[in-house]
Amino acid sequence: MKEAVFHVYRGDAKGGALQEYKVKVEEGMVVLDAIHRIQAESAPDLAVRWNCKAAKCGSCSAEVNGKPKLMCKTRLDAMPLDRPVTVRPMRSFPVIKDLVSDVKWNYEVNKKIPAFTPKKDAEWRWKQEDIDRVQEFRKCIECFLCQNVCHVIREHDEKARFAGPRFFVRVAGLETHPMDSLNRTKLLKDSMGIGYCNITKCCTEVCPEDIHITDNAIIPLKERVVDDHYDPVIKVIRLVTGKK
Amino acid sequence: MSVRFESHDVDVLVIGAGGAGLRAAIEASAMGARVGVVCKSLLGKAHTVMAEGGVAAALAHVDPKDSWKVHFRDTMLGGKMLNHWRMAQLHAQEAPERVRELERWGAVFDRTGDGRILQRNFGGHSSPRLAHVGDRTGLEMIRTLQDHGVHQGLEVYMECTVSKLLLDGGRVIGAFAYWRETGRFVVFRAKSVVLATGGIGKAYKVTSNSWEYTGDGHALAYEAGAELIDMEFVQFHPTGMVWPPGVHGILVTEAVRGEGGVLRNSTGERFMERYDPKRMELSTRDMVARAIYTEVKEGRGSPHGGAFLDISHKPAELVKKKLPSMYHQFLELADVDITKGPMEVGPTTHYIMGGVRVDPDTGASTLPGLYAAGETSGGMHGANRLGGNSLSDLLVFGRRAGMGAAEAAKKIPGHAELDPAQIEAAEREMLAPFERRGGPSPYEVHAKLQETMQSLVGIFRVEADLRKAIDEIAALAREAERITVTGAREFNPGWHLARDLRSMLLCSEAVARSALLRKESRGGHARLDYPNPDPELGKKNSVARREGGAMSVTQAPLPEMPAELRAIVDADLELVKV
To answer: Which residues form the 2Fe-2S ferredoxin-type domain (chain A) (predicted)?
Structure first.
């Protein structure tokens, strides 16, 4: 049986280093399988998050050979195994231990977004075509890989002023819901800092759910912000018609 | 009370943040209770997220003749009449409103042509009944509940594991837990506690369940003195992935069959014709699982030991639209394009019908102060659960348990004093594996337990195997007492597993003992030595409880169904479906 060499980050908030482990490679094996094997065979305290093992829960995000990935769907046979496979925690969040990073900030951001607020007395009927887009946004599994690669967070650490792609996707899902009655453009402009995004599409590239984050969520939201807060004509029309 | 640990006071403590836990928490909170939710993973990652096919509710959008009565009848017949009739009734009656409520909270279900919630076919349901979102219904539900709950002021304790319930006499008054991140202990005082920790699948080797599914709630309840019922009824889902090895057991949604997928063996035969010619692929899960198992055993399996499941005769666009995650799962993990060729599938441990005995209306267990909902509770699904009835179960009974717990909490003026001796014992128990030297690793003992349960307490059971399993589980429990954990207390999965393993051992013992006692075949419990149902045993629940230091399993009469409900079950389908 083939063997692969893994360099896995071991450490905590105080610091750490890559540690080497050898793993027997089975057919169809993914990085998470290798991590589990390392746990069972040589490092029982190796910390890692995972749940579904089928790319549905978004728990096992990490950086594999420098690329942000879900470990459960990163196949070893798609990687060069003649050199070590490196596995590190997501870089944009503080390390708790080994591959586990502190993602609590995301949950705090989420709390600030006003919930779905349905229109009063409306009929709950809509066509499938009207919600295809909403459903695209609702596919998000909260792996936070988009947050991890967004340079506003990764390079500039603007967590205090910027919500990140994940939460623009969430707001897009609310704003385009046929029944929602709120307008969240002020929030997007002010506390969520959507203006900081300069549409480099890094988030879209890493999304394991293939959500077109930049084109379908962020750009239309930016347009709404501009219309509501910088375009006086549309602002008046919206005020008069009551359309959001 | 001990001041050495971080402590929190709540009215209602909910353990588990899947669908049932969140729905319970939302309800309790809406009733004015101060609610704490403790969960082992991050919020939104619970096993509900893995549910794919849909939530069963007689909305009658696709089949106008569907009604709660038909749903009730299907559920009772699917459960081989072992269900608690009152649970099946409440479930069928309330599921439609619970689904509509989710929609009002922001869930976006697929639509019918006239713009209403679309429903799809599933095994054992006599009408298209499952509201769904492609094949990611569970994600939609958990996200909706999560986002709704966040705004209700729930206090969420993420990545925190409860290791012991704390008692005052015979009443549950709190819980002892540890933070996974720091390994520090935390104590909760609560007026009532709701268990919603899901199932026990991780006791088996081939399972669709995540690491969290270690039977914590079942074990906590049992240890505290509550009763568990019908633990022998484990559901083996007919279609899990069988290849590659790393994904063996991962769920392949029943929606593949609901959308028209067919099962074939290695000779190309649609073998369900021999097992259930009327319902074919949409037979109940227990039947289809045994059929696939038998085909493989008799030498007609696929190359990796399963059956072929094929949906490629349907238009590729439809498959990608209705089964997107199956499409990606097979393409990315197994190199199979399901729009072009068949998948290989085989049975996988999926769900436990048995669980904490509860009062149907309030979710109250047999122990004061303790409630249970969802997979952790027993009775609703009888001997076999219909697909889609779990997502509806957790909404209906999550809400009811939350209500029951909050109502009870209102009547209790203040928190009871915790007993320092119990807390110290809980602490000692958690720290012991660090202090021992030279014992086995938790991973090793876990692997052995999985082997035992898989090979001796699986789809087909026989007395000699079950006796052997009970002995092996006892030996493993002794081995578990010697487990050594290395490393520090901060986020140490080996240590976490050492604790979870104790719950798995307990649940495994309950499954094996209940299975030994039930000398018949019914639903998810198939005995080679008793291949037929026994009408007398069809009137009995298995009841496991702690007596002294040992587990006692007895059989007790089922609650009696009122005549008007009995008439619904006994009548021809055509007469109910009007």
So the answer is: 4-91
